[in-house]
Amino acid sequence: MSDQAKFQSAQATIVRNERFIRTAEQLKPALLREEVEPTRLVQMKADSSAMHGWRASREAGIDTLDSRELGKGQSVIADFGDHRVGYVSFEVRPVGSPPDAPLKLKLTFGEMPVEMAVPFSGYDGWISSSWLQEEILFVDVLPGRVSLPRRYSFRYLKLEVLDTSPKYRVSFFNLRCMTVTSADRANVAPFDHADPLLREIDRVSVRTLEDCMQDVYEDGPKRDRRLWLGDLRLQAQANYATFRNDALVKRCLYLFAGVPDDRGRVSANLFVEPQLIADDTYLFDYSLFFTVTLHDYYEATGDGNTLRELWPTARRQVELALERLDDRGIVKDDRTWWSFIDWHESLNKQAPSQAVLIYTLKRAIHLAKAVGCSSGAELERRLAEAEQAALDYLWSPEQGFFVSGEERQVSWATQIWMALAEVLPQQRNQELMKRLLAAQPEIAPTTPYMYHHLVEALLVVGLKKEAVDWMKTYWGGMLKDGADTFWELYDPNNPEFSPYGSPLINSYCHAWSCTPTYLIRHYGL
Amino acid sequence: MSDQAKFQSAQATIVRNERFIRTAEQLKPALLREEVEPTRLVQMKADSSAMHGWRASREAGIDTLDSRELGKGQSVIADFGDHRVGYVSFEVRPVGSPPDAPLKLKLTFGEMPVEMAVPFSGYDGWISSSWLQEEILFVDVLPGRVSLPRRYSFRYLKLEVLDTSPKYRVSFFNLRCMTVTSADRANVAPFDHADPLLREIDRVSVRTLEDCMQDVYEDGPKRDRRLWLGDLRLQAQANYATFRNDALVKRCLYLFAGVPDDRGRVSANLFVEPQLIADDTYLFDYSLFFTVTLHDYYEATGDGNTLRELWPTARRQVELALERLDDRGIVKDDRTWWSFIDWHESLNKQAPSQAVLIYTLKRAIHLAKAVGCSSGAELERRLAEAEQAALDYLWSPEQGFFVSGEERQVSWATQIWMALAEVLPQQRNQELMKRLLAAQPEIAPTTPYMYHHLVEALLVVGLKKEAVDWMKTYWGGMLKDGADTFWELYDPNNPEFSPYGSPLINSYCHAWSCTPTYLIRHYGL
Fold first, then answer.
1. Of A181, A198, A215, which residue constitutes the final position of a domain?
2. A11 confidence band (pLDDT: 50, 70, 90)
3. Same domain, B436 and B331
4. Which candidate in A100, A105, A147 is best for mutational testing of the B interface (most B CBs within 10 A)?
5. Omega of the bond prior to B99 within 30 degrees of 0, cis?
6. Single pTM value for the model
7. Domain identity same for A24 and A70
8. Residues 156-175 of B with CB under 8 A from A
9. Is the ipTM value over 0.90, yes or no?
10. Which domain holds residue A265?
């Protein structure tokens, strides 16, 4: 998920379940730490063929850093060799006369070359500039050791001397990053595949997930850093195929279940520091993904105790979603709701949300049976109604597509989610996806999140070759464009796209992009 | 003293005296701490009659701070009621939705209104901008408590919200400063005087000294922060009349004596963090002031042990100065030396330095006698020669002034130091000062440091009324112009003067300005 400032806030009354919160607290992971060093010094060069117009180019070996003497206005960029999430420290020593004034430094952290090359001061996007990773700091006593208290998400670090005095310069030593993650690489099965591109996509997916796994499954370690339900669901799926930190999934489920509103609805995302707070943002699809995530967790672990404890919360999300159905059995599309589905200004959310509900109902029914709950039969009846309503009112036989909203919009998102929800029988479902790929409606996927669902839908309907092709094109495209970890946003046809007004603020290691490892390993691609 | 970047550096070999350094270390004071709160909120208003064109104006009571909610681009200025040196802390709490982005704050500390009103970004002076007291910081977790690790010297603090997010604003609580000083107010005798202006000048002098007394006698707590010999001499004099932290004077003398160069010369200033380092700046007059400061310390304390230990260092400064005398017995004025005397571009330093040498010789002879050293007779002979040389070669009978340098410059500084050195007999000495005040040569005092010597010279020659008048005009002028503590720089005829190119970087609590309390109390004004 991404920053949600576009979603309106609802004043919600939170009903805390302290037992659930305690359970979540007990599951808080100890983070694994590893000290890493930069690998080289780089310069950023303008290159119109490179992503955002900038390319990192080797300037010197990292062993030359110690001997570099920087005066006022001089800078150096260290390349840490790969995406890193952690805490940075270094020593700084004066060269020349004893320092007769403090050292004023600016540090700029970047996941991508553009963040080193384009000044943050020009940023004027609509989410907070406070996400841009920079520090201005003073060192009063030299030589000195600087240990920055904040965590950064970066590959490149620019050390810039804003001022010293005419009497001295400085050199930097022992530049390090202490990385943190709750993902244990030792648990990941080696992945051997004949196709080197799939191997590389898998490797970078795993790195992406690793760097997003912290105290919770974070959205993006650079920006947002919170726990979002839609992303949790995908991260958990990737986790079952790789790191198997299932306790972290359990922890996140208990966190969401710990702070529902007074109707029992779970929030789209949580703040966990300084204390657990449910954000005042509720999304139709994300609330339902609580139920889906619990389903997947139970499938992966067989943990019946957790299922029994959290089933009421899971069932409640379905009940609340069903309350949104109109007389026809279709999700009401008015101004009182928000559903995410994808970042697209013009995307109508009605039909894909109907599909998400159907998708969830099928999994809720499975859980009801597992838990021995009598509501299973009722849920089956509602599922049948919702599916029939979708066929009756959202299916356009003339077009061969599902349509959404008053204007009967034909979007990729609608077909993809209807395919995932398996509303049509298998053969017709496959034809739907074939027709989608052939027709290429204008309202297309914009995010890795939506591309993930496209690829999975193709796999669900049996179009394995097309699924692999799309994955290679999209995630392989990110690799070609220099991804160390997979990005929050990538539109091959519009590489400068940012829903926030600047690529500087985009997150380049983002949970919802980590799914190829799940798709590859789970579906045996 | 002030920043010395204008003085050339000499490569010096330091010969450490570890015993002296240990003695100094053992005398390191425990700092007294006091928590102070701001007293009101202010705005800075443009006012051409105010110092630097800005005046602080009450905006609201400090009790309204808690309820103020600041969003992006908003700020508030807290007035701490008086000059403060210490550590600042506050709490910051979010208002609105849970904070979905870090808080980015800018803090600006100012001793004077101009520092709140004129952006530091425009500073382009010739000493380091790193002295400008500002911080940009991020608060990732809200509510949060911020305890800034650096010490600031200020009265005003601007809290400026650079960014939050559209979803929240912030309020500030429990804004505090933990002040630090090694000066104990309980030791200062109450000062009762019929003249309210003298009472106020005394009070502000004492405050100035108090805020400069830290681990050492600092130059200025905002800028420089080091131990300078010329300032130490004056602070010690003021200290004997007030706080009586004589151990701190002793500590500073041992610090200087601990790191002479291989010729035995003491540096003009010392760095004490992270370890004791002699700066590579040597000044003719400042080195001699080691001897003068030891003399004054012995006079004030009768501490014969310290005198005996440090006498060789004190004597050595005089010997080295005598080596600079030419065949005539006059201080050589060539390109190989630096003497401070005063901040004045055109001031020739020869004659005032000759006077400083004579002034010092008289005190060295006193010390030689006290310590029972046989060199006293030799010093008396050299004194007689130096005085006679001054009369023979620097005295201009036609003008009735001492002249300096090849161009026979007549300056205030020369006459003042000759008067202090008492080269002329008492009556002629008084006439010299009267003539000076009447003639007003063009090369005039520019700093409080030189004005101090002017006032003391008037007292030495018996012109008490003139001394008081000058003190009231000069230090009283600073008070009228809004001084909470006395300033590094003040030229009533040129209030914007800064030797650094901007009043933003000037220090407004400066050691060499604290002397009126000494002059008033010592001379019983």
1. A181
2. low
3. yes
4. A100
5. no
6. 0.94
7. no
8. 162-167
9. yes
10. 18-31+182-522
